[in-house]
Each structure stands twice: as structure tokens, then as C-alpha cells.
Design a protein that fits this description.
Helices cover about 40% and strands about 15% of the residues. By secondary structure, the chain is an alpha/beta fold. Helix 5 links the parallel strand 5 and strand 6. Helix 2 crosses helix 4 and helix 6 crosses helix 11.
């Protein structure tokens, strides 16, 4: 049997999936990139295979992960967390694929295959304290977080049974150039000359980590599985940034890029469907993961915002938005 490790990325064309694929491409591995949409393989030393598949199809999933030593599970249903509230199909992606995965995944060697899962820090529900350290009881407050927790529990049960080696990385608020999160959304508003709006007075804090640092966390998990298998691990910068300050930083970065006056940052009334978690501050203590792997976030918020704005100011034809 070829001894070169086979690492499969599920959701390889997504925001986080693309970043994880980029760092894995530098390893001497067989890298299998799986997505429902088109994927352009990044440059790197890995031998790469691209598969287009609907992973809610059990047969397609079985074929996609066959022979894998490790699987990076980075799937997110269409519409993200909001769709989980109203779309019954979201549970099939957020939970059903994990249920199928642990059932169809087979060991390539004497050791069970490794599954590194992209969980969410929000699975805990309304934060009972600050910072979160991963020991809090989970009381998810949204359908999305309930589904994420269900998938994590399926993975951990399969790990306890010896069928797979599961690791869950509970992610913070991730941002970056290709993202659809709050930083990119507000940068797009500012680039369009619109005011940046928030549903509170701006003092609500979020633990913001650039997507490249998140990708490095997945690489660290792949390199240190023995210390991590069977647990969930918080990934965060640990400080917590007030969103008012973050949005003003975005407005200033857009101003510097375009030469225009910074747009206003204002408070507006929240929509009725806004979850209570949107109004609670979240900071994450990732010291356990750092001690096990040596990982630390390396991209400061200001630099990450500048990178995000710089990327968003360009259309695909390379012209700068003004």
C-alpha cells in the first residue's frame, strides 16, 4: 500500500475550506478536494485530486472518502446558520452527512481514520461567562447550533466506539477576504458608500480570528492528533474586540483604500428574529489547544481588516472599486 497519507477535504471550495486546502497543499500528501461546486487546486507539493459531489448522497460520500487517512469536515449548508431555522434540508447537510460519514468511513491502516470537524463556539448557547474555556455545558440557542452540536456528538460517539478518531475545533467569528461574515459584509457596505449599521451600541465583543489563522489551526490538529482526539477545542484570539471599534476600523481601512471620507458607523433597531446571542459578548480561552499544538493566531485584527478590504476592492477583472 502507498504509505503517502491521503487527506480529504469536504467543503474544499468554501471560505474556510479554501484556506485549509491552501495550507494542506504544501504538505507531501495525497490531497483530495471535494465540493459541490467548482474547485481550482492551489499550487503546492501535494498530489491533488478534485471531486465534484453532492455529499448528501451516501454513495457519493462513500466514494469521496474511500481510502482516506484523514478527513477535514468543513461543510456548511446553503444559507449558513440562518437557513437552519427555516430550511429542513439544512439538517441533512449539517447532521446527516456526519452520520453517514462515520458509518461509511473505513480504516486504510491499523489506525481508525482521523476526522477533524469544523464546529462552532456558539454551540454553547448564550455564553454563561467570559471567557469560555470549553468546559461549559452546551445549551445551544439556535437551530444551527443544535445541529452543529448533534454532528459533534455523533463524531464523538463514533470515536468512543473506536470507529474513527474525531477532533472538533469550535471556531470563533472567522473573517477574511472571501468570507460572508460580519467583517466582510460591513466592508462591502462601506465600499458601496453605505453606513455601517449595528444592532447595539457597539460594545458587544467578538473573538475575531482571520481565516488564515483558522486554517493553521486545522493544520496543527492534523499534526497533533494523539493529544486532541475525543475532545472539542476552542479556537480564538482570546481578547474580544468591541464591534463598534471593529466597524470603525473597517470604515477607516475603506477610506484609506478609496480616498473617500469614512462612512458613518451607526446603531439601528434589531430585527425581530435576531437571536439573543447576537447581543452577548464572546471571548474564547484557547490555551488548552495552544498548549497541545503550539498554535497561536498570528494576524492582528488591523492587518486582517486591511487584507479583507484590499481583496474586496478588486473585481475579478482586477479593477479597483471606487
Amino acid at each position: 500500500m502507498d504509505s503517502t497519507p491521503v487527506v480529504t477535504v469536504l467543503g474544499a471550495s468554501g471560505f474556510i475550506g479554501s484556506a485549509v486546502t491552501g495550507v494542506l497543499a504544501e504538505l507531501p500528501i495525497h490531497l483530495r478536494l471535494v465540493s459541490r461546486g467548482a474547485i481550482t487546486p492551489p499550487p503546492g507539493r501535494a498530489e491533488m485530486t478534485v471531486l465534484t459531489a453532492d455529499l448528501t448522497d451516501r454513495a457519493a460520500l462513500t466514494a469521496a472518502v474511500a481510502g482516506s487517512d484523514a478527513v477535514m469536515y468543513l461543510l456548511l449548508g446553503d444559507g449558513g446558520w440562518r437557513a437552519a431555522e427555516t430550511d429542513p434540508a439544512a439538517e441533512r447537510v449539517n447532521v446527516g452527512v456526519m452520520r453517514d460519514l462515520v458509518d461509511v468511513l473505513r480504516p486504510r491502516s491499523d489506525s481508525p481514520p482521523l476526522v477533524v470537524y469544523a464546529g462552532a463556539a456558539s454551540q454553547v448557547g448564550v455564553p454563561p461567562r467570559e471567557p469560555l474555556d470549553g468546559t461549559e455545558p452546551d445549551r445551544p440557542a439556535t437551530a444551527y447550533d443544535r445541529q452543529k452540536l448533534m454532528a459533534e456528538e455523533i463524531l464523538m460517539k463514533a470515536t468512543a466506539q473506536g470507529r474513527v478518531h474525531g477532533i472538533s475545533l469550535r471556531l470563533p467569528t472567522v473573517f477574511g477576504p472571501a468570507g460572508h461574515g460580519v467583517v466582510s459584509a460591513m466592508a462591502r457596505r462601506a465600499l458601496d458608500g453605505e453606513p455601517i449599521t449595528m444592532w447595539h451600541d457597539g460594545t458587544v465583543r467578538r473573538d475575531l480570528v482571520h481565516v488564515d489563522d483558522v486554517a493553521a489551526a486545522f493544520l496543527a490538529a492534523l499534526a497533533h492528533p494523539d493529544l486532541l482526539v475525543g475532545g472539542h477545542w476552542l479556537i480564538g484570539a482570546g481578547g474580544g474586540d468591541e464591534l463598534g471599534d471593529v466597524f470603525r476600523l473597517v470604515a477607516q481601512a475603506v477610506s484609506e483604500r478609496t480616498g473617500r471620507k469614512p462612512v458613518a458607523v451607526t446603531s439601528v433597531a434589531p430585527p425581530e428574529q435576531a437571536p439573543v446571542t447576537d447581543f452577548r459578548s464572546v471571548t474564547l480561552d484557547s490555551s488548552a489547544f495552544r498548549a497541545a499544538t503550539g498554535w497561536i493566531p498570528r494576524i492582528p485584527l488591523s492587518e486582517g481588516v486591511r487584507r479583507t478590504v484590499a481583496a474586496l476592492t478588486h473585481h475579478s477583472d482586477g479593477e479597483v472599486r471606487a
